[in-house]
Design goal:
5 helices, mainly alpha, 0% strand, 99 residues
Length: 99
Amino acid sequence: MKAKLDSAERSIERSAASYRPASGKTRKRVEGILERSRKSRNINIRISEATLAELKRRSEQEGLPYQTLISSILHKYLMNRLVDHEAISKSLQMLRSAR
């Protein structure tokens, strides 16, 4: 059975002939990055029952396992992408009042 491709996949397939293999040094660097991103490690962490219950409740709302949610939160924090809605609201209020 032939898979149906979306427009982005069809575009990639059409331009595949124009791609060239990465050099040895570049390829090793990219493979190293991919390997590090695939590795995961189990850890133990102590958190309160109430926090765990809230994490599990929120993970159900998001439709993903709670451990995946925790990992995602930690990753977003480290990438400076974790959003504090209260801080944003306060900043917006301050900007509006400064006008």
